[in-house]
Amino acid sequence: MDTATLEQLPYRWKPAHDLPPAGIGIVGAGNIVKNVHLPAYRAGGFRVEAIHDADTAKAQALAQAFGIPRVARSLDELLGLPEVKVVDVAIPGAGRLEVVRQAAASGRHLLVQKPLADTLAEAREIVLAAEKAGVVLAVNQNARMAPDYRFAAEMARSGLLGGVFYAAHLLWSNHDQMPHHAPWLTGAERYQIVQYGVHHIDLMRFWFGRTPQAVVAQISRRPGQQFRGDMMATVALDFGGEAQASLIETNALGLSRPAARQFEVAGTAATVRGEDGRVSVWPEFSRVELRPALEGSWFPGAFTAVMGDFLEAVHTGRAPMAAGRDNLETLAVVEAAYRSAETGKKVAVEDVRREFAL
């Protein structure tokens, strides 16, 4: 194992096929669409045909800024456009189910922002609506396409890590001090695990290649915080046998503390560690630290990759990287974590699966 070999791992998404024109219709014109989705799609050469938002003025502003041909004043108008082949659903969770039902019924394939829904029950309804209509449903679990996280996944998949037996993810951030970024979430009963930890729980499934068997979790709030929901979480994932993972994360810090993230994935042959986009690798039985230089970015690069993967799945008939049905497994772990935090007990993921008929 050497640095040159590691840098050749396929951690950056590249299309395996020539893709036809995208024909994207976007539902939503908020900050994530303005600052990430549209720059990412422009970078990927994906054509956005129309945009709709309840605030038509916001949609019009983005259409002008990004050269989008049409602003639809209603969802029906957007779905009535024959050039719209797929729909990117990027609105808050409260309105997604009905949008998905209408878009799926019209035969449009769907890419939906993460978390797929704010509750597992509603996420299941979204998946069932897509399956009933026979359309592709992908979830924008964009962390899977971030260069450092995907590099760790490719090390696991290639066998360079050996058997993965441990992983950890740490996050320090300050969203409680920025309620204007997501005002619709300030009153939500649940926040940290379902809105942020969902990334990292999904990454654990991605790295281990399976869903954990059970969860133990603790959540808490900062004194005097602005959001209602949990802002701090510690989650332990039991993968069975000799394998476990943990998350320690907070969004309760002050604005003076820069946001930061770290992770580590350990296998029987090597360990990979990431810190704010950089990675180090330690082969087993070696004191050498390898530091491969990674290319690309999470924002907006991973969003280009997510849309590209989705369009390729639609074009070829294969499953997308984060298919809706598979993503229910991630949300089952999220639900198990909250139940553990509420009861103080270890919760089996299979119990959640049975209750929600997954």
Sheet with the most strands: spatial strand order = 13-12-11-7-10-9-8-14
CATH topology (level 3) name of the largest domain: Dihydrodipicolinate Reductase, domain 2
Question: What is the structural class?
Answer: alpha/beta
Estimated radius of gyration: 20 Å
**In percent, how helical is the residue content?**
25-40%
Describe the global form: globular
From the 3D coordinates, which CATH architecture of the largest domain would you assign?
Answer: 2-Layer Sandwich
Beta-strand content = 15-25%
The largest sheet, given as strand count, sense and whether it forms a barrel, is: 8 strands, mixed
Q: State the separation between the terminal residues, measured CA to CA.
A: 41 Å
How many individual helices? 11
Overall average residue pLDDT = 97
Question: Would you count the extended β strands for me?
Answer: 14
Q: How many independent structural domains?
A: 2
CATH superfamily of the largest domain: Dihydrodipicolinate Reductase, domain 2
Order of helices and strands: HEHEHEHEHEHEHEHEEEEEEHHEH
Q: Could you list the spans in which at least 5 consecutive residues all have pLDDT below 50?
A: none
CATH class of the largest domain: Alpha Beta
